[in-house]
Amino acid sequence: LLSEALEELNQAADKKDVEKVRVKYLGKKGPITEVLRGMGKLSAEERPKVGQAANDVRGEIQEKLDEKNQSLEAEELNKQLAGETIDVTLPGDTVKQGSRHPLTAVVEEIEDIFIGLGFSVTEGPEIETDYYNFEALNLPKEHPARDMQDSFFITEDLLLRTQTSPVQARTMEKHEGRGPVKIICPGKVYRRDDDDATHSHQFMQIEGLYVDKNIRMSDLKGILEAFVKKYFGEERTIRLRPSFFPFTEPSVEVDVTCGICGGSGCRMCKQSGWIEVLGAGMVHPKVLEMSGFDPEEYSGFAFGMGVERFALLKYGIDDIRHFYTNDMRFLNQWKQI
Ligand code: PHE
């Protein structure tokens, strides 16, 4: 009986099986109970022996049952633990962290400087009308200076803006003839250019406009000089050269002293010591007038700079195409700025 019970217990796969074995051998209808019940019929001599034997067998079975239950429980716990194991020494998944695009970073840096000089930041549409992109800037249809900016026309009257200057006209209109207007406007512009190391059919500009009573050329020079010193470094200076834009009179080209040779002449500045960085001038009276400002009462200056150029010069990048080709080896270098 004992070996039979132990054999069955061995086969038991779970606690339910163990319980079945218990009921079968130790239960009320089991053989041990039966033996104990039949004790009354035995002689006084046999009784203690049989009783002892039955109790021993019961004790043994009970003990094995408990053991089996314990080992089943342990097995189950081990299984559960194995399933829940976390290997804290495994290397984690690296979360790739992005960074600001260098052009965004440069725009924000330039914005900060001009905000510090009292300018506010505004924006205008990239799809522009012929009126704002050209006419309101003193560039009537058939004006030869339109050729300075080969354009992407969408319809006869709509084009991708070739410059951020249309925002000058849009902003002045909103002010309804009353100054001051003191804004900068960053944004994308488009020209029909063949892409190479220094040209791109799409690039970024930052426009500046300051219109008020008694604004003079010296204000333009002072603001631009302060800006260049903040952006490139205190040791840098600027010079103005006469130039032409239809919407400014007089117009100037602004050069900054070379940062590589310190102005003494090198390959970077083509031996001149100076690098051209932006176009500017006093807002043409006709432009003021078309946008609702009385040129007898108000005057102003405007400037426009190429963002890529400012980034190239400050960070020593040799090819404008790096900004648009999304090469991670290039982009990953900008985490610090
Ligand atoms: N819009 C001119 C350009 O794209 C730059 C400019 C802006 C010049 C404002 C003068 C005043 O070349």
UniProtKB/TrEMBL annotation:
GO terms for biological process: phenylalanyl-tRNA aminoacylation. Binds 2 magnesium ions per tetramer. Tetramer of two alpha and two beta subunits. Residues 104-313 form the Aminoacyl-transfer RNA synthetases class-II family profile domain. Its EC number is 6.1.1.20. Keywords: Aminoacyl-tRNA synthetase, ATP-binding, Coiled coil, Cytoplasm, Ligase, Magnesium, Metal-binding, Nucleotide-binding, Protein biosynthesis. Mg(2+) binds at residue 249. One of its GO terms (molecular function) is transferase activity. It comes from Sinobaca qinghaiensis. It is an enzyme of class 6 (ligase). One of its GO terms (cellular component) is cytoplasm. Its cofactor is Mg(2+). Belongs to the class-II aminoacyl-tRNA synthetase family. Phe-tRNA synthetase alpha subunit type 1 subfamily. This is Phenylalanine--tRNA ligase alpha subunit. Residues 1-22 form a coiled coil.
